[in-house]
Amino acid sequence: MKRVLAIIVTYNGMRWLERCLDSVYDQADIYVFDNDSTDGSADFVAARYPSAKLVRSAENLGFSKPNNLGFEYAIKKGYEYVYLLNQDAWLDPGALEKLVVAAEAHPEYGVLSPLQMTDGYKALDAQFAKRCPVVAGHDVYEVKRVMAAHWLVPVRVIEQIGPFDEDLFPLYGQDDEWCHRLHFFGLKVGVVPEARAVHDRAYRPESKEKLAHRNYYTGSLVRLCQHGRPIFEKFFFIIPFTFVKAVKYRSLLPFKYLGRIFKDLPRVRELRSRVRSRAICAR
User: Fold this and answer.
1) In terms of Cα–Cα distance, which of 31, 105, 21 is closest to 67?
2) CATH number at residue 54
3) Do the strands 150-154 and 81-85 form a parallel or antiparallel pair, or are they unpaired?
4) Closest Cα partner for 5 from 153, 104, 194?
5) Are residues 25 and 117 in the same domain?
6) How far apart (Å, rounded) are the C-alpha atoms in residues 283 and 280?
7) What is the spatial distance between Cα 13 and Cα 34, in angstroms, rounded to a whole number?
8) Which of 58, 142, 199, 261 has a beta carbon 3.0–4.6 Å from 149's, enabling a disulfide?
9) What's the whole-number mean pLDDT along residues 79-107?
10) 28 and 127 inside one domain
11) Do 172 and 219 belong together in one domain?
């Protein structure tokens, strides 16, 4: 099989780590970036998986930065694929091999995901089902975007379109922006239905502040970064979206974040410019 590096970002994830790492231990090399866990996650990885590359951070760096460091490591060491794997997720036996086989057969795909299911494989993960309804009769089917809890990515694609944006999307939204970027470069996002995996996300009550930040603020930035589409077009969506979210949350927080979005426009334009420049150089 091709050389694959599984990149796993951990933060107080002891409840999942054994199942997570065991699921890829015999299928890929492992790169773990621990975000200064306090539950012994890093020590567990060091003791149980001595062959894994373990990076211990002195602070929580979020999601994008640790994965970008994993990308750099994969490029430096000559890996052909990376597999982004959430700490609360794991693969069915043989699933990674099926993904690699599909990637080799379909080089037009920049990201491939297995079916992402709930623990026990009883049903599709709710967010996955909403974004990626199953299309029967295909070894790979195309979707607009898929969550990065399970991503197989060719290293050549990372080199082509660049890493996650750590500035605008340190924790949320980077996977959606990256999918937009893939489409701008003429690449596809897909699902391999014969490969199955679990995303054991915990559905916990969230504060209005967190919901507004992730779903409204970060979601709006992702829309503005939809490469190849003019920014003003997206504002025609964002303005009514602000009112809708304010009513839904019964809060003025979306209006506060709207002001922040305007302040972020220079950073949005900078990212769009970098992506456009890469695309021009790739042609």
Assistant:
1) 31
2) 3.90.550.10
3) antiparallel
4) 153
5) yes
6) 5
7) 10
8) 199
9) 97
10) yes
11) no
Last-in-domain residue among 167, 199, 231: 199
The residues with which 114 forms a beta bridge, in sequence order, are 192
Q: CA-to-CA distance for 113 and 84, rounded, in angstroms?
A: 10
Q: Are residues 63 and 168 in the same domain?
A: yes
- Residue showing tokens 């679990």: 198
Return the H-helix or E-strand segment holding 75.
helix 64-77
**Owner of token pair 């949005």:** 268
Structural domain range at position 99: 4-199
Q: Are the beta carbons of 132 and 113 closer than 8 angstroms?
A: yes
Task: Give me the residue label for tokens 């057969």.
Answer: 105
Q: How many domains does the chain have?
A: 2
How large is the angle between the packed helices 265-282 and 253-263, nearest 10 degrees?
Answer: 50
The two structure tokens encoding residue 56: 């211990």
β-pair type (188-199, 89-91): antiparallel
Regarding whether 214 and 185 lie in a shared domain, the answer is: no
- Asked whether residue 120 carries a pLDDT value surpassing 90, the answer given is no
Tokens 């992730």, located at residue: 214
Phi-psi region of 124 (alpha: psi -120 to 50; beta: other; left: phi over 0): beta
Parallel/antiparallel/unpaired status of strands 53-56 and 89-91: unpaired
Q: Are residues 179 and 229 in the same domain?
A: no
Run of H or E including 34? strand 29-34
Report the length, in residues, of the chain: 283
Inform me whether the pLDDT recorded for 134 exceeds 80: yes
Look up residue 92 and give its two tokens: 């069915």
Burial class (CB in 10 A: 0-12, 13-18, 19+), 28: buried
Q: How far apart are CA 105 and CA 222, in angstroms?
A: 30
Q: Taking a C-beta distance cutoff of 8 angstroms, is the pair 223, 265 a contact?
A: no
pLDDT tens-digit series, residues 237-267: 898 989 999 998 889 999 999 999 999 999 9
